[in-house]
Amino acid sequence: MGYRVAVVGATGSVGREMLNILEEVNFPVDEIHAIASRKSMGVEVSFGEKILKCKDVDTFDFSRVDIVLMSVSGKFSKEWSPKIAAQGPVIIDNSSAWRMDPDVPLIVPEVNPEAARGWRKKGIIANPNCSTAQLVVALKPLHDAVKIKRVVVSTYQSVSGAGKEGMDELWDQTKAVYMLGASAPKTFPKQIAFNVIPFIGAFNEDGYTDEEAKMWNETHKMLDPAIKLTVTCVRVPVMVGHSEAVNIEFEGPISDDEARDILREAPGIQVIDKRDDKGYMTPKEAQGEFAVYVSRIREDLTQPNTLNMWVVSDNLRKGAALNAVQIAQLLVEQGSLTKVIA
Ligand SMILES: NC(=O)c1ccc[n+]([C@@H]2O[C@H](COP(=O)([O-])OP(=O)(O)OC[C@H]3O[C@@H](n4cnc5c(N)ncnc54)[C@H](OP(=O)(O)O)[C@@H]3O)[C@@H](O)[C@H]2O)c1
Question: What is the CA(10)–ligand 1 centre distance, in A?
Fold first, then answer.
């Protein structure tokens, strides 16, 4: 006996992964509903061996469900989440709409599980940005061991971070470059096939992008506002899997061996770190996996108390759908959901 769950945005890159992961982790589901826009009514999506037909968000009765996993745009969530929450279910939202709202917990279960207990204020829990999620999983156990002073991150973000349109654009441009010449960019500002773009989101007045600002704001909210964090976000022609080159300065000494041992024991992390061709992780290998992978751990030779590392994860999983399902599991463990069908 379990919960009645609705996945809103079920035809999208994250929504489909949410359905896969609910099934993979055996989440106690009594009823499952796939919801998308009106144009997708009747479109079929898989839930394990079952096929679900999508329902229209405008006509669905959300008082029938206990948990809503939502992965649509921020604009949609701003409008719809309060209306849906008023009907009773908890909303676990993947968009950026609510992340910095002081009355909405922003949760990565390995990092700040206790904050989830505050969800009833607005009925919403926010999932962080995909690049932040994998970063804080790797930083948290190190910060617990020796306080982190400053972090410098460069991201290598896959096109699936921009949804199914981003994946289609890389696919279409790659074919076009080979067959007909380059096709015009639509989702990304410049050609992404055979290129990298040092810009994600929109420019802020200070010259950083909103994607970069999300990473420090969300890290401060979940982990520690005292950590100084500076970021450059880059889009790369990879379908799935975000990578990050991370330089971490600590308040005291920590060796690469100590960091390796700490990370090996930490939840959600796999350390793959040997000095040979199989001894580091790439996004291709992380695709479809649950873990945050840490490789290339080494001491920064230019200043004391500083490490470099390479952090890779499947952005559609730990960066989005898996983290959302883990939040639902956490609420069940904490006993903070009313189990309607007991
Ligand atoms: N991709 C990532 O790595 C990632 C990571 C973290 C967070 N996120 C966030 O998660 C959200 C979804 O991302 P995505 O990558 O899955 O996008 P996506 O592949 O473009 O999918 C968007 C989904 O939203 C649905 N939708 C759009 N307009 C709708 C409406 N008016 N009513 C109901 N459903 C509507 C679409 O349904 P139709 O097919 O019917 O249009 C589709 O199911 C975004 O806020 C994104 O920023 C994404």
Answer: 8
